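FORM 12-B: Structure-to-Sequence Request
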């Protein structure tokens, strides 16, 4: 054998052996570090500069009250008895939402989403006035302000209207400045805890095994199926970030229960790779009921005193396709493709297959979960 051919075969074998399994995934894709998460922020503000598409002040009283409070804070004196005389068309009350990412520092910016609260027709072209964003604890963590982008429009009159996308919802990229950061305690006490996004005993055990092979026995253990706890090795006590980075790139063999997910509204069927069917016989037939109604005319005899009337005529026809009994002989280790071919042999549509899967599950021949959404 030539040296070049030998080298090529060696490289191919090495690539095959070194390649991760098709069921393997990184730790960072399977689990998240406990305590490292986003925090939701909420604020109430005003959008100004609208082209006559703002809230109706007679219907949206809260918008009128917010405008009055804003003017009062800015030194504009208005008689409270005359507040109902304020007529504005270019202002809309909105709710502002945002996610405060973990380890965010004061002075950095985050994106915000803005949605109308009143009866505003469109927020396109508006500007959000300074709006405090408050966390669940009642403290202000960011302040939002800026020009709104809706990516939509809405024009028309009483007879017709043209609209693209949703004009009462928009966003501002980098529209909020963080004023308060949240302290994080990652690695406190020399321990870390990962939460699996999909709790599974096998995956948790595999994850702990992979970590122990990399950093030594006793480093990680599953507790319970949805959590993997680990002790930070002594060599990483002063550098927790490097330890987390090394853990999150490890490949773990994943596992999950067999599932068939069906959506009755769209006729969509999704089967997992571990779905198994026991040997079962399925008979499928279609029943069609066609009802047709025509209008007939009843004409009286000549020289009689009768009247010409319309008489409805109804015809009902029942068409039933010949059902066929198909044996689905499923052996251990059968693939999804073989299951699909066996079910397609019945000649059923996707919506018919949903009913078939429900019947197979009821018969006890479907080894897995049937989830209907």
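FORM 12-B RESPONSE
SEQUENCE OUT:
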């Amino acid at each position: 054998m030539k040296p070049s051919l030998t080298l090529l075969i060696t490289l191919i074998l090495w690539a095959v052996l070194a390649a991760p399994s098709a069921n393997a995934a990184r730790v960072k894709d399977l689990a998240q570090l406990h305590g490292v998460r986003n925090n939701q922020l909420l604020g109430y503000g005003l959008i100004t500069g609208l082209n006559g598409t703002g809230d109706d002040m007679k219907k949206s009283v809260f918008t009128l009250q917010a405008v009055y409070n804003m003017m009062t804070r800015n030194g504009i004196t208005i008689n409270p008895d005359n507040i109902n005389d304020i007529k504005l068309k270019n202002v809309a009350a909105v709710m502002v939402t945002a996610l405060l990412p973990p380890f965010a520092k004061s002075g950095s910016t985050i994106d915000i989403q803005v949605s109308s609260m009143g009866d505003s027709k469109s927020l396109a072209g508006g500007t959000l006035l300074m709006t405090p964003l408050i966390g669940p604890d009642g403290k202000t963590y960011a302040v939002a302000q800026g020009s709104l982008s809706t990516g939509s429009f809405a024009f028309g009159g009483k007879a017709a209207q043209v609209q693209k996308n949703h004009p009462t919802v928009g966003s501002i990229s980098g529209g909020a400045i963080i004023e308060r950061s949240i302290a994080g305690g990652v690695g406190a006490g020399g321990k870390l805890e990962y939460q699996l996004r999909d709790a599974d005993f096998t995956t948790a055990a595999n994850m702990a095994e992979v970590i122990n092979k990399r950093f030594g026995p006793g480093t990680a253990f599953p507790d319970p199926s949805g959590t993997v706890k680990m002790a930070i090795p002594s060599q990483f006590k002063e550098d927790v970030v490097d330890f987390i980075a090394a853990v999150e790139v490890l490949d773990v063999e994943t596992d999950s229960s067999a599932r068939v997910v069906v959506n009755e509204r769209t006729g969509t069927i999704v089967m997992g790779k571990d779905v198994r069917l026991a040997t079962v016989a399925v008979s499928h037939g279609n029943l069609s009921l066609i009802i047709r109604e025509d209008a007939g005319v009843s004409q009286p005899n000549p020289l009689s005193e009768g009247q010409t009337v319309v008489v409805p005529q109804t015809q009902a026809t029942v068409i039933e396709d010949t059902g066929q009994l198909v044996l689905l002989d499923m052996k251990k280790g059968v693939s999804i493709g073989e299951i699909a071919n066996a079910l397609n042999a019945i000649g059923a549509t996707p919506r018919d297959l949903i009913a078939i899967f429900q019947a197979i599950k009821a018969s006890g021949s479907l080894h897995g979960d049937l989830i209907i959404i």
